[in-house]
Amino acid sequence: MMLARDLVQNRKLRKLLEHQVIAFIPAYNIGGVLNRGCCSRANQNGPEAYGFRGNARNYDLNRDFIKADTRNARSFHEIFQTWQPEVFIDNHTTNGADYPAVLTYIATQPDKAHPKIGAYMQEKMLPDLKAYMDSKNILICPYVNSIKNTPDDGISYFLDLPRYSSGYASLFHTMSFISEAHMLKEFHERVNATYEFMQGLIGHIDENYQEIGKIVMAAREQAKTQKEFDIAWQLDQENHDNLLFEGYEAKYKPSEITGQNRLYYDRNSPWKKEIPFYNRYLTTKKVKKPFAYIIPQGQERVIQNLETNQIEIFTFQRDTTLSVEVSYISDILTSTRSYEGHYYHTEVKLRKDKQTLPFYAGDKVVYVNQTRNPYIIHTLEPEAQDAFFRWNYFDAILMRKEYFSPYVFEDEAARILEENPELREKLEERKGQDSTFIKAPWMQLNFIYENSPYYEKTHNRYPIVRLNEEMSLPVN
Length: 476
Hints:
By secondary structure, this protein is α+β, with helices and mostly antiparallel strands.
């Protein structure tokens, strides 16, 4: 609000509005702002009162940008897609280690950004921001995501997946930042550092608006014809750069509570040295884009999210039959504890099949020829790290709806084996390999059932299919 005021009232700053539109969301977490108190962040140095991290439904909004459980996130999508910003910044207060820097930042992870966007941010935008903050005597550094207990052993670049604001924004080739004012600094220092970081960024945009516009526009246009997309990454732990870092010496002393050694940072022992900076991520999964995705009309939540994010959607005008690529969930690992209202699927493996299926008037078609292709791919491909499937949008497919009564199915199972010698051979092979299986009649009957026409075709079948061949479809 201070910056908005000054941009309007200060003539020297008003010129920054000549080449850019600046849209402010002063309070995003409305419910959290109203839930005001003194003590929800035990480690934070003031102010006297502040809002709460959870929203009115106790969701952490900075985990909700892609899954969109909240009205806050859906409203943000509408605002973001209306303005389609080239640059985005989300201001936070951080926790973690103690160090001299007043503010740290998360910039769009370059290995998952468009190459030209990643290069521009790392080689030009961030150095300019650092120089501007140095001119204001404000120490900043990359977000302190410690590899071990303290920064001394190195830090890693934060992987901003689409659940986070900057990760969501980067799906649309927006240059994105999360600023993190350090919790232990005085409140006025945190406010000033955040103010100057924003002003420094706005000043950089003013001087480079044409180049930024061209880079972002080119990346968005290229997304239309991009053939392959990275959808999962892991930190490269074998290679690192060095980062000149200012820290405080980490020491240990007996705890007055537990009697065991406890960590503390000695502000009387500052240091400045190069530490390992693990700033590269390796792609662990790629997918080739299909010609189109077909979405059953009953998947209303998916369709609404796509519409809110201005994805162009077409509708079948009549029933039709198509040969498509179908995915089955062949293996899955799921978190055993709730995370932001979900039991997130941590690992997903697919089995793919080509099938001829009926589709109905009213079903939806999303052609993958849009500037927003990264959003389409990252939400609809089940193996993408923040796909809708990972966030339990389709968990109903993971449970069988029909079973059998063993005493009834026995005779039918015998008939199936008699007519299918290959299945009998597989059954006997399984018996020979699995001592538990051979002693479990129900498991053997279920094996036959799952390999028979009675087994439901929709069990574990991902409902959104890929149309890989380019063709004309009966859609409006």
